[in-house]
Hints:
This protein has helices at 3-31, 34-60, 75-105, 116-145, 150-156, 160-189, 193-222, 228-239, 274-291, and strands at 244-256, 259-268, 295-302. By secondary structure, the protein is mostly helical.
Amino acid sequence: MAHGESTSVVVAALGANLLIAVAKFTAAVFTRSSAMLAEAFHSLADTVNQVFLLLGIKLSARPEDRKHPFGYAQERYFWAFIVAISIFTVGAAFSCYEGIHKLVHYRDPGQSLQHPLWALGVLLVSLVLEGVSWVIAMRQFIQDKGHRSTLQVLRDARDPVLITVLFEDSAAMIGLLVALAGLCAAWATGNMLFDGIASIVVGAVLASAAFFLARETKDLLLGESMPHADNERLAQLVTTFRQVKSLVSHCTMHLGPSDVLAVLKIEFHGDMTTQQIEATIDDIEARLRQEMPQLRRIWIEPGMTTPVTKSDPRNP
């Protein structure tokens, strides 16, 4: 996904979440609903998270310098990881706390649902706004998906921005439906126990989304290789050169969504001179950058396949 596309998806989510957070906090004050308060903090956390993602996009665009010779592309991964932690601590933990508190004190005086129409109206408006943000993110996801399966797209994703926004919006949609169900049940029965249960379920949904995002961004921070299909494409391009006898080994690592480091060891035919090998290496680098522009940094080392020596069983 291009830089501008990432930014537009995040900005749409930021605007929707900010409006939703204000509406939910207003409704929580009037209704005294734990589920509504949990949803309000969830939307506030989502708003802050979009700021974090925008910050990551901005900082990752800085050019390399002496202190960071490989650039700052990994800023996207760091801030996406912070978003996952934020979803868990601010959203999931607070929702579960409020739900448990409501379950313990649901019989206390003053624990009745106040002005339920306020909450109902806010939840319905929130569903519409959140749905708009979700549609924008899903449309971009489908465009990037192509003919691949959803599981394959998630496995191959190297840009956490779209996945983070899509999972945030999906969790928010589920949370809103759960809060709506809890509100209606509490309103119909007069039992605030349903409100507390809804808050805990919202927390569980957020915790699940946070766990998935944290796991994915952790792999990217540790240095994930290109997807299998891209690695196969790289090997195919190298071995099309007639001067190449074999591709001994190659390693790739994503420094950022569109910034890949590639280290290759290539065995050339034995009758080639040093000058011919150097010229071929230049041609290989040029071809790889033309066909796979994400390969920003390429190191090629001439070498030979190391034969495997079997140990003598009499002399291990």
